[in-house]
Amino acid sequence: MADLTLTTFNWVPEPPRGLVRDLRVRWALEEAALPYRVASTPFDDRGPAHLAHQPFGQVPWLTDGDISIFETGAILLHLGERSNKLMPTNPRGRTEATKWVFAALNSVEMASLPWTMSKFMGHPTDTAAWKFVDDFLKLRLGRLEPVLGSREWLAGSFSVADILMADVLRVVDRFGGLADSPACRAYVARATARPAFAKAHADQIAHFAAADKARGA
Amino acid sequence: MADLTLTTFNWVPEPPRGLVRDLRVRWALEEAALPYRVASTPFDDRGPAHLAHQPFGQVPWLTDGDISIFETGAILLHLGERSNKLMPTNPRGRTEATKWVFAALNSVEMASLPWTMSKFMGHPTDTAAWKFVDDFLKLRLGRLEPVLGSREWLAGSFSVADILMADVLRVVDRFGGLADSPACRAYVARATARPAFAKAHADQIAHFAAADKARGA
User: Distance between CA B10 and CA B47 in Å, rounded?
Assistant: First the structure.
């Protein structure tokens, strides 16, 4: 088996901890029980060595032997080909999971990111721009609600699509954005109750906390 | 060969014509020279028959035999498995194309969509919210510029990743957002100079223009 290495920042400030996207990859690796190691890249200096793996200066990236992959969607599809715990094995099921991978990122996160970033930044909510952002998210959640009310997981069985969708929705939930979407809220609750999520989340928190100690030393 | 059918709206208002996302799928189908037909779904009534294929009430979707796929990213990856004109054939090249498919949508369009929608809606540009949106796009374009300055196409040869990236960037270009990104602008120019783009664009315009006549009749 090739050597899987997940690279994330060596440290991040307090607010994004628990939200850094290496969590999605950790979660998938834990679900699949694939062996991996975690490497660090400097948060304060995103130089050529970083950009060679992740041209936008972000994290995470994953190396699988001599292949290097960035974008959590691409990484999770790659891991989905390595474990039937992450993707259905039949072609129809794989197509189903793939379309929901894109839907999580492009139909839902495309609408939720401007919303959660505005909340995070404390932008005023009495503007036309905010109303547009808020209406856009509500429109998408309104469409998602009956989908998540009618099935346990998006593609028949638990898959990488659920890792992405649940990770997108739990940030909205944190800011109270799922108040009118009980099926979405229940879905976040059942996804994040999985032991692999708990392990991934705790490992990310511990990774950055250990860096605090190193900085303080 | 299975029967490929692309479904788009039967009609849309004037402003989004040339921008409706069936264009991405038409472009890929034209590049690959795969036979396909175009079907229509009512713009004014997005009922259960629509939502069964596209749960968010959008277009396009593609049926390939009895498989139905929504999300242009998922559709283009699916078509990439059917034609070596759309994806490299070696595993490394396929991984490269897949990560740039996600990067086009999630690293670039995630930043460009709030920007282009604000322009489209005419939101004020003297707000903290606008500055955040504008800075976010500039950050991403700044990272993309050296990538597109150093290669003709994203994944070695022309691929579905280029269809998505060029389609995302040409909308930014339309609103003048690539003024400080000459390599991005040159990339949009060489991608949209391809005959398959021209055919796809003309076909979309003609499709909606024909619907105008039917409405007027």
Answer: 14
For A93-143, write each residue's pLDDT tens digit. 999 999 999 999 999 999 999 999 999 888 889 988 899 999 999 999 999
Q: What are the structure tokens assigned to A131, written together?
A: 């109303």
Is the same domain home to A190 and A95?
yes
pLDDT tens column, B48-90: 999 999 999 999 999 999 999 999 999 999 999 999 999 999 9
- Cβ atoms of A80 and A97 closer than 8 Å: yes
Look at chain A and report how many structural domains it folds into: 2
Q: 3-class DSSP state for residue B191?
A: helix
Same domain, yes or no: B129 and B168: yes
Do residues B174 and B200 both lie within one domain? no
Same domain, A40 and A118: no
Spatial neighbors of A157 by CB under 8 A, at least 6 apart, are A88, A93
Q: Helix crossing, B110-121 with A110-121: angle to 10°? A: 80
Q: Check whether residue A17 and residue A30 sit in a common domain.
A: yes
Question: Over the stretch A130-162, which tens digit does the pLDDT of each residue have?
Answer: 999 999 999 999 999 999 999 999 999 999 999
Residues B47 and B66 in one domain: yes
Q: Which domain holds residue A37?
A: 4-85+196-216
pLDDT of residue B216 exceeding 80, the answer is: no
Chain A window 96-155: which residues touch B at a Cβ cutoff of 8 Å?
98-99, 101-103, 105-107, 109-110, 113-114, 117-118, 121, 123-124, 127-130, 132-133, 140, 143-144, 147
pTM equals 0.96
Let me know whether B104 and B45 are in one domain: no
Closest Cα in chain A to B139? A56
CB within 8 Å: B103 and A57:
no
Reported ipTM: 0.96
Q: CATH no. for residue B123?
A: 1.20.1050.10
Whether A95 contacts B67, CB under 8 Å: yes
B127 and B97 inside one domain:
yes
